[in-house]
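It would be a great kindness if you could assist me with a short task in structural biology. The matter concerns a single protein, recorded as an amino acid sequence and a row of C-alpha cells. Could you please explain, in whatever detail you think fit, how the C-alpha cells follow from the sequence? Thank you for your consideration; the sequence and its C-alpha cells are set out here:
___
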Amino acid sequence: MTSHDGTPTGERMAAAFQYCHWCRGFASDVRPVAASDAGSGPRQQSYSACPSHREQHGLVPLGEQTL
C-alpha cells in the first residue's frame, strides 16, 4: 500500500544488502560499527557488521553509540 505521494505505508521496506566485514561478503541490515582516521590523509576506514555478527561480537552501530 502506498500513500498519496507514493511512499510505502505500513509495509516494511526490503533491507539493502551491504558488505559485512566479518562475513567477508554481502548481508542484509548491515550497519557501520567502527571508524578510524589513522594518518594525515583524507582516507578514512570504516567497518560494518550484519545483525548476527553485531550480536556475536557485542558490536554497537555507530548511530547508537554514546560518547
